Fold this sequence. Notes:
Mean pLDDT: 94
Bound molecules: NADP nicotinamide-adenine-dinucleotide phosphate
CATH topology: Dihydrofolate Reductase, subunit A
Strand order of the largest sheet: 5-4-3-2-6-1-7-9-8
Strand content: 25-35%
Low-confidence stretches: none
Number of domains: 1
CATH superfamily: Dihydrofolate Reductase, subunit A
Amino acid sequence: MRIAGEEARVSVTLSWAQGLDGSIAARRGQRTRISGEASLAATHRLRSEHDAILVGVGTVLSDDPRLDVRRAPGASPQPIILDAGLRTPLGSALVGRADQKPWIFAAASAAPERRAALEAAGCRIMSAGVDAAGRLDLAEVLAGLADSGIASLMVEGGGAVLVAFLESRLVDRIVVTLGPSLLGGYNPFTRGPAGAFPVDLDDPLISVLGADVVIDGVPRWPAPS
Ligand SMILES: NC(=O)c1ccc[n+]([C@@H]2O[C@H](COP(=O)([O-])OP(=O)(O)OC[C@H]3O[C@@H](n4cnc5c(N)ncnc54)[C@H](OP(=O)(O)O)[C@@H]3O)[C@@H](O)[C@H]2O)c1
């Protein structure tokens, strides 16, 4: 997505797995396996096609992901965490990765002792402004990544981060895996702000992988009201 006044550009792919009812987890904060083996491998292939991969700190706290590429050949993308208050645990799998330490976007107001501890563990702390609700400014995050040589970013969740990217419209591609279950759980899209939806996918590519359906397309945004 081109950012006004900036030469550098980060192409953003949103990717998530959901049940047939739109739930991305059995309940918010609970790690939930939705995809089968074939679509998980496809997700890892997609990861390897991006320079960086981003999640919110909510996902770090609940799922403790590694965000690497284990189920497909290729290089692992640089892990990025949106974490205004630097709540990422020192003992998390991402901080513990020996190959690539995460870059963590934080607010200027984050506690200096948390910053020092995470930096001592090898993390890179990057700054971005926050809105009135304390959410990091996504355009600033993308500008910071572009300045650091990142050209493509895969955003994997969780719910609050997916909705924030949809709301910002800083998204070039959407890849959704539909698993064959009704979870009755955490559906972040029903909580989207007015004006963010509907989002249609133009010319979607539809694949069946095992029992899952993967829909891959370019978002078309609603006209401003
Ligand atoms: N099915 C899937 O594909 C999938 C993928 C990933 C996660 N999940 C599930 O999603 C759930 C976690 O989602 P979640 O919504 O609780 O957390 P999340 O989206 O992972 O993280 C949200 C947190 O990120 C921080 N943040 C900073 N800037 C933000 C911004 N501009 N917009 C939004 N958040 C920002 C905020 O914490 P601070 O204020 O502290 O910065 C916010 O509370 C878990 O149940 C997990 O299993 C599912």
